[in-house]
Design brief:
Helix 2 crosses helix 3, helix 4 runs antiparallel to helix 5 and helix 13 packs parallel to helix 14. By secondary structure, the chain is α/β, with parallel strands linked by helices. Strand 5 and strand 6 form a beta hairpin. The longest helix is centred in the N-terminal third of the chain and has 26 residues. It has three domains: 92 residues, no CATH class; 200 residues, Endonuclease, Chain A, CATH 3.30.870; 165 residues, Endonuclease, Chain A.
Length: 512
């Protein structure tokens, strides 16, 4: 028995994930000890580092960065002078991030010509709503993706429904299948999809799989991509997790995309793991949302995938252009888009703000995390004050205690502004959905937190005038029947120590 326990402990200790974490901790400890050593034994150097901190404080204060992002750095420099300054320089001068930024900008520039905007489509959208046409122009100009008319969409209110649709479309593939997910984990969902992908590969269909190096780091073998290559499936890992202190580790591929033949595409909150289809219960019932786009809009998701797949090399994108698009009947407008941390244009955040600011009757929001900047809190409050029915649906059973505790730190001011907040009582909400006025909606991967809005690669689709928007609203309302409304009385009853923890976490939320 003791030998078995010892073997288990050794396997745990020498597990690659444990070793990676230990290596990161060692680097951090060495950095801290070095700073402490300098502060105690080399007064001139220590004073120089303090002077550097003062310069950085002035610099940070005068940058155009979001004030909510500046605050934690300024507080850190007050509490941990010298060390915080060096940490800030590490984040700002990281070579890995600069390379990522340069390569992504090059790919975006190269693929720009494959995503032209049809002026007639924008004009037609303007006839529906001038504000929607303005939003579409912004997304096209600063996000790089046009709005389309010849499309239809389907909304899925849970992972189970989207899973069945994904299998259906994969079976129909004739030319290629592209999958890009933050998480891929062994289990029923992935095993069934992999079986279908093997079949299609054997039939001559090109299959490519792209997954995030951190999202899958702790749940799949390190070289799992080698396993897939044995079946003829091309596979790449985005930004592989390395045991070195680097700000580039912050920039994850959080997107979820499945493209079939350039004419059908899926996105939404659903990763490939069994909790997303409620085959594995981790945090109660898993509530998610997904979207299928069929027609011209799927081409944007195709190019979107290739931009990251070909990050360090380029290929002929037009070889993947669909032979024939499948529109079906026209049902509103669809504008897929992505957002990246490689520039200072926060398209995902600005789309959300625009919908909130222009809402007339209601705006309903599903999000797993509620960690907001000042602009978002203000926009939600002003909309509610104008008489717009503003409702937020968040998890009652969280997956991260610190995110849940931080979310509660916003509840008081939102409730005071007459924003209504609900928590999904059966479990965890992972959907990232907006719906407003039965006329505009968003389904995608973008959470209402700093990581999604500022640090990750994300994607989504805006729906203008599509019947799908009403389906998103109906799903929201059905979810409210299984939710509890949070009141000011609930906030007052929350233990003081939990509120205090939330206040502290909120200061450092942009760095979490």
């Amino acid at each position: 028995m003791m030998r078995k326990i010892l073997r288990k402990l050794l396997r745990t200790f020498f597990n690659r994930n444990v070793l990676f974490i230990m290596m990161l901790l060692v680097q951090l400890i060495v950095l801290v000890l070095t700073v402490l050593f300098l502060s105690q034994h080399y007064l001139p150097i220590y004073l120089m580092l303090l002077g550097l901190d003062m310069i950085l404080v002035v610099y940070i204060t005068n940058t155009s960065e979001n004030p909510s992002y500046k605050l934690p750095w300024l507080v850190a420099m007050l509490v941990l002078p010298v060390f915080a300054g060096l940490a800030y320089l590490l984040v700002k001068t990281d070579a890995g991030h600069r390379k990522l930024k340069r390569c992504y900008a090059e790919r975006m520039k190269e693929t720009e010509k494959y995503l032209p905007q049809n002026a007639n489509v924008v004009q037609s959208l303007g006839e529906l709503s001038a504000s929607y046409a303005n939003l579409s122009r912004y997304v096209q100009k600063y996000g790089g993706y046009p709005v389309y008319r010849n499309c239809v969409s389907e909304y899925y209110a849970d992972g189970e429904a989207m899973f069945e649709a994904m299998k259906r479309e994969i079976r129909r593939a004739k030319h290629y299948i592209f999958l890009e997910f933050f998480i891929i984990s062994s289990g029923k969902m992935w095993n069934e999809l992999l079986s279908l992908l093997k079949e299609r590969t054997a039939s001559g269909v090109k299959v490519r799989v792209l997954y995030d190096g951190f999202g899958t780091q702790f749940i799949m073998p390190r070289r799992y991509f080698r396993e897939l290559e044995k079946y003829g499936i091309e596979c790449r890992v985005f930004n592989g997790f390395k045991p070195f202190l680097s700000s580039s580790q912050n920039n994850r591929d959080h997107r979820k995309i499945l493209v079939v033949d350039g004419s059908t595409a899926f996105t939404g909150g659903i990763n490939i793991a069994d909790e997303y289809i409620n085959q594995k219960l981790r945090f109660g019932h898993w509530k998610d949302g997904g979207l299928l786009c069929r027609g011209h809009a799927a081409w944007s998701f195709t190019v979107m995938f290739l931009q990251l797949w070909d990050l360090e090399q380029s290929e002929d994108v037009m070889q993947y252009a669909p032979e024939s698009v499948l529109p079906a009947s026209f049902d509103g407008f669809i504008q897929p888009y992505s957002d990246s941390p490689t520039d200072e244009e926060y398209v995902g955040r600005n789309v959300y703000l625009d919908i909130i600011n222009n809402a007339r009757d209601y705006v309903y929001i599903m999000t797993p995390y509620l960690i907001l900047d000042h602009e978002m809190v203000t926009a939600l409050g002003i909309a509610a004050k104008k008489g717009v029915d503003v409702r937020l649906l968040t998890p009652h059973i969280p997956d991260k205690w610190y995110a849940y505790t931080t979310a509660w730190s916003y509840y008081k001011e939102l409730l005071q502004e007459h924003v209504r907040i609900f928590e999904y009582e059966p479990g965890f909400v992972h959907a990232k959905n907006f719906s407003s006025d039965d006329a505009i909606g968003v389904v995608g991967t973008i959470n209402m937190d700093y990581r999604s809005l500022y640090l990750h690669f994300e994607c989504a689709a805006i729906l203008y005038g599509a019947s799908t928007v009403k389906e998103i609203r109906k799903d929201f309302e059905a979810s409210l029947d299984r939710s509890i409304e949070i009141t000011m009385e609930d906030y007052r009853k929350r233990p003081l120590y939990k509120r205090c923890i939330g206040w502290v976490l909120r200061i450092f939320a942009p760095l979490l």
